[in-house]
């Protein structure tokens, strides 16, 4: 007899559980909280002789499901997860016009019989895994800092273009420290070149010296000349400097946080992949290797390499009927951070790996868009990395004939044989963009009805008026 416990997990309310035996409901709507006493009471109500005969089905709900799933897994039961999109579709089939926690728990309890292929066994700690969680946190920090940099760009534009040139259009530590204190051109001029030089030397570890201080003072003078109206109705530089200082301090804080996260990631990745199998792939640096190892987790939890590709969301959508088969854009149904890192790794690997470069050249020869070709290469990279992880072997760089080569030799081979002209890539991109615009508008051969004609206007009346 197959026992299934469907649990509809709530974040701020009581969970509801339904027990089914061979698809038939035994009891339903049992409410409990994520507390030791409630879980023990529910466990005693199950009255199991062998915990292995029970399958617990949960739907991932934020992070609240992790504690429940881990509690049951430690008791020896099998815990499976259900994708939220699939459970939503099945819920509509089960009860189209009503949705409540009791129905959800009943659906989850019957799901192993209704759709066994949609279940994925819970292994590891999921979002509770520190490497997986930290990689996501780093990505969030980087995006926040990028937004701060965009706001700094907008505010610095009010000071004039000379400030970008003086800071090399970069927001390093020295530039952010400078903007956090001396974004007012009046203050920069009063500070003087000698004191400003000492400040920049200390903050940049000697990279910025007297010439940089002179450029910043010249930029401050240019800003005052741009805003000199003669009637005193100019820019309030003190208020502008305060706004810039707030953004620069946020960027400094986020930069420090990202640096600390990178140190923690290095240690966690060393524990998760002590042999450095993921890092052995071309185009995979410290950050990308930590993301791939953290987001994939245990590679053996996937039934096949095709399942790993589907998890990334890099596989195309397929619509097949009879003899017709259409493959459109990628599904994007998997982990977005994993896709982002694989895209960056594939774009770099095509410059090092001759096999990847040859594939890229063939794709671009068929008028493939650059981003589409890189997505295809990212799928190949993921398949190879996952295969290496499952087999416990390092990524081996090879020529197209199978000869083992070094990374330096791979760069030379790619430059000599598979270098693609930038103009060729731009022409393909512009051609694809024009075709997509025509397809979207549906006006490949249509003319505007208001366009002027080349012939003379017809002065004859279109109808005859009878009095």
UniProtKB/TrEMBL annotation:
Residues 423-467 are annotated as: Disordered. Residues 426-435 have a biased composition (Basic residues). Residues 443-467 have a biased composition (Polar residues). Residues 5-155 form the Transposase IS110-like N-terminal domain. One of its GO terms (biological process) is DNA transposition. GO terms for molecular function: DNA binding; transposase activity. InterPro entries: Transp_IS110-like_N (IPR002525), Transpos_IS110 (IPR047650), Transposase_20 (IPR003346). It comes from the Bacteria. Residues 277-361 form the Transposase IS116/IS110/IS902 C-terminal domain. NCBIfam families: transpos_IS110. PANTHER family: TRANSPOSASE FOR INSERTION SEQUENCE ELEMENT IS1111A. This is IS110 family transposase. It comes from Mycobacterium novum.
